Amino acid sequence: MKKFFQQYYTNLFLTDRLFAALGFCILLFLLKFFFSWLGEIPEIALGVVLMLWFIDLFILYRNVQGIEAKRLTSKRLSNGDENPIEIEVKSKYGFTVNVRVIDEIPFQFQLRDKDFRLNLPPGAIKSIHYNLRPTKRGEYDFGFIRVFIASPIGLVTRRYNFDGAKVLPVYPSFINLGKYELMAVSRYLTEFGIKKIRKIGQSTEFDQIKNYVGGDDIRTINWKATARKSALMVNTYTDERSQNIYCIIDKSRVMRMPFEGLSLLDYAINASVALAKVAMLKEDKAGLITISETIGAIVPADRKAGQLGTIMNVLYKEKTRYLESNLELLYSSIRSVIKQRGLLVFFTNFESLSALQRQLPYLKRISKYHLLLVVFFENTELKALSTEPAKDIEGIYHKTIAEKFIYEKKLMVKELNKHGILSVLTPPQKLTVNVINQYLALKAQQRI
């Protein structure tokens, strides 16, 4: 018995039902002082409670391992997305047990309500499903799975501890990549506001052989195919499709601003991963540059099989810095690294027109050699404030200032367009879709 308690006492818990039964027995003993006719009823009641307690102990601890539980997750979590988590519980008891499952999830979520209750018939297997939405990249430590078992008697509870401890990395958003892949391969781009412009290329990349129609260049007639088909056939060619697409991510302090739990840097990282995937599906080469006061990571543009994984591994550890980005250094790095003209998508943020004007000379120099697309963010809090009716003089002041900053954002777009620099001003939650739409529009217009 001593060995039994030494082995199991730490996992043995008394229930409210037992305390209620003992309280009832105590009440009977107290009443016995005033009502002698109770006789031996209090002793009998206490004996019954103790007997049931021992029976409960026996049936719960008769099986060395009466319950099995395991946590089923993917090898990594997707930042900013709902990630499914499953806990599978199997009963080996010969009777129905009441089960309480507590999953020790990573401290980053600051959740204490992952507490599940269920009934398990003999030999049954049940699954518990819930979702976790991480808002920071990095490593997340899962702890034990605590399973508490009670028999139908319910006087004691036995705890099982399953070592579900594991460390899962949280990578840039990858769960919704399939949705953006459909945008890349869909032929019905007009639903995204994109009109594809057909342009007959004259490069050496062969496309197909088709029937001759009026207006086709007679120099492209394929005489062998004509002889076989007894009709004029011509070769068609397409423009070179493999272009360099670089995502340039600003890691300076302007990207620390939070929105719905994610920083602007995280939104830019998620959009970069999605754009890289779509670009490679469109047969372009995807690359990456990160910049703050110094040059961060540089991933040369490529479309090999592991390129997307390389980009995600680089972005996995990127963090914002506290100084302003050095765009002069960015310009010199672009000139030395990127030898061919391509599309550069620069994710940054400007909160004032003067901030843009400080960086504008370097942006103009970059746009001379590449097609530059500057992506920056709307301040959604200011936009919401500007639409609210003012209730007093202070409210009028706040609303006026908010409208001033919103108007400055529109001036930034005009200023960039004036110098031939493309721009996208977008709310954070629509960043990925808007950037991919802009890329597809440029692709359809044969600008890249």
Automatic annotation (TrEMBL):
Residues 209-357 form the DUF58 domain. The keyword Transmembrane helix applies. Pfam families: DUF58. The keyword Transmembrane applies. It comes from Pedobacter petrophilus. It comes from the Bacteria. This is DUF58 domain-containing protein. The chain crosses the membrane at residues 12-38, 44-61.
